[in-house]
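Ticket #4471: structure output looks truncated?

Reporter: J.K.
Steps to reproduce: submitted the chain below (225 residues) through the standard prediction queue, then opened the result file.
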Amino acid sequence: MTTTITVRGTAEQRIAPELGAVALTVSGSGAERDATLARTSRAHDELLAAVRELEASGVLDTWSAGQLRVFSHRPWNNEGKQLPVVHQTSADVEVVFTDLGRLGDWVSTVSLGESIGIVGIDWRLTDATRKRTQATAQREAVADAVAKAAVYAAALGLGTPAPAELADTGLLTVQPVARGGPGGVLSAVRMSADISGGGGAPSQFTPALLVIEASVEARFTADPR
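Returned output as attached by the reporter:
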């Protein structure tokens, strides 16, 4: 009598990041709209000039900058009294480094500006590396499924299991998709770092290894020996 064996195979690849995407915001606030806008515009222009210098030096992959936004509101104090109008300005900038050594030095310097805040750093892989590493994880997940099926078959006194079905996790069963998702997913790509600057030595960045996970479900059939 043929026995059906259903297993889940998993695998992961750990790899050092190749890119560091720094998210920044340029912002300001004040009682005078024009003065606040002018002050933030200057800081924005200075930041973009610094980014263009980095681009010219060849240490960037890409960069992008959003438009300067302006909005006004009247805050309330802790006594329930509405205060005069406050005008706020902000713009988002993202700078993606290929030279991770330069990233820490630059962040330490740029974060000294009063109008500039560092939102965070996103550690990434290039598309080519991510796809290649994901493919490796997927192959290893299939190998893991094959090995598990062989163990179950041997425990039951059956012969070598033959593959019958293979699918991304969740497609052979009604269970929720496991973390990692179909085909493998880049995960754990964010990490915290000291980006305060503070006028001391340049910030030191030691990004964690990125993890690419893959998960598959498979069905095998095996006959008695």
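Triage note (M.O.): checked the attachment and the full token line is present. The chain has two domains: 3-16+128-222, 19-124.
Status: closed, working as intended.
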